[in-house]
Amino acid sequence: MRSYRELFRTPEYTPFFLSFATQNAALTISGLSLATLVYRATDSPLLSAVSMFGPQLAQMIGATFFLSGADRLPPRATLTGINTAFAGCTALLALPGLPIGAVFAVVFLQGLIASLGGGVSGGLLNEILPKNGFVLGRSVFNMASGLMQVTGFATGGVLLALLSPRACLLLSAGLYATTALLLRLGLTARPPRTAGRPSVAATWRTNALLWSSRPRRLAFLGMWVPNGLIVGCESLYVPYDSGSAGTLFASAALGMFVGDLTLGRFVPPALRRRLDIPLRLLLAAPYLLFALRPGLPWAAIAVGVGSVGYGASLVLQERLMELTPDELAGHALGLRSAGMLTMQGVGAALAGTAAQLTSPATAMTLMAAVSAAVTGVLAVCARQDRPVTVSAGVS
User: Fold this and answer.
1) Where are the alpha helices (DSSP H) in the chain?
2) Which of 40, 159, 307, 379 is the most exposed place for a label (fewest CB within 10 A)?
3) Among 175, 152, 176, 163, which residue's Cα sits nearest to residue 246?
């Protein structure tokens, strides 16, 4: 499957895509609004960064206990329930006078809920599309994420100039509710992909099984660590230049869109498989320029070019699916999503701490240098691997 027309003619893909785009718009507007609200209240780069990316810190906890539900729960009902819960949590964050401790408690709860969503969504996409359409379909989802971030952050910046952060949070809650409605009306009620009840024991067994393969481990780590460290850089846009944060977020999202469009539509599969390491290095390198404390437009150009490197995740997802049996696809993609988002939360916390001790520009430079170093280590490890047969238990 190489045609967008063919892709969008696939039953259920279009409503699923629209719900995903709406959810991402809600996520970007609410994240920017909450970070601005917390920064105004505390004047703390650390708390601002963690408030925006804090839900990711709870992702791995949720993946440890709940991820078996990704293949054992009906997908439509689960995704509808998740977005309904997001709407309620976001509306709660908009309450006047909510203590900072309560804000972070709600943020943590959102992360626990979200830990299941990535696996359910990924497994459903793998089910809706034929095998040869997964990369193209996933790339369109990634492009939608980039476009919605461009639109969401740009719109969020305008809305924050016109409205209060709490009003923007209420708007985001309405978008989450719209997402739940789109999922309920647009998707078919499908049975779970795997028999059995979700349980902590089942989650641990499958996590251990997926982690037991060295090639899968390297794929997971490649998607988690370099990406998470660079998101740490992004978490400092507000304290780096609060007046231009929306522009920097939009530039980063635009770069991600360009990378996913190019890889998903124009790069042949044989070449695409060899690009994950160069793309991960590209992701980090432009942030080294922040040692010079560039202003607009140079900062926006740097983050836009660097974000093309987020396309490495698309390459590694394709590799992960080649290494994973179909009955574990949802769990594997959920683990990928939970681990990646957790590392983004960790990256935001590390970057915020470094900025608190030094400066936002220095912290961004340090995070980029560590990201590039991790990519180098993983590249050396990957060279030692031999090709493997797809199997759940072979390492």
Assistant:
1) 4-8, 13-42, 45-57, 59-66, 69-72, 75-93, 100-128, 134-162, 165-186, 200-211, 214-234, 237-240, 245-261, 269-272, 276-284, 298-307, 312-322, 329-357, 360-383
2) 40
3) 152
Cα distance between residue 292 and residue 365, in whole Å: 9
For residue 332, CA distances in Å to 3, 116, 392 come to 27, 12, 11
Q: Which two tokens stand for residue 371?
A: 């990201």
CA distances from 224 to 81, 98, 144, 163, 371 (A): 26, 32, 21, 35, 11
Question: Mind listing the pLDDT tens digit of every residue in the chain (395 residues)?
Answer: 567 788 888 889 899 999 988 998 898 888 888 888 888 888 887 787 777 766 666 777 777 777 788 788 899 999 999 999 999 999 999 998 889 889 888 988 888 888 788 788 888 887 888 877 777 887 888 777 767 766 777 777 788 888 888 999 999 999 999 999 999 999 999 888 777 777 888 888 888 999 999 999 999 999 999 999 999 999 899 889 888 887 898 898 889 888 888 887 788 888 888 899 999 999 999 999 999 999 888 999 999 999 999 999 889 988 998 898 877 887 888 888 778 877 887 898 899 899 999 999 999 999 999 999 999 999 999 887 655 444 444 33
Give the number of other CB atoms < 10 A from CB of residue 208: 9
Cα four-point dihedral sign 59, 153, 165, 35: positive
Give CA–CA dist 197/200, Å, rounded: 10
Predicted TM-score (pTM) of this structure: 0.71
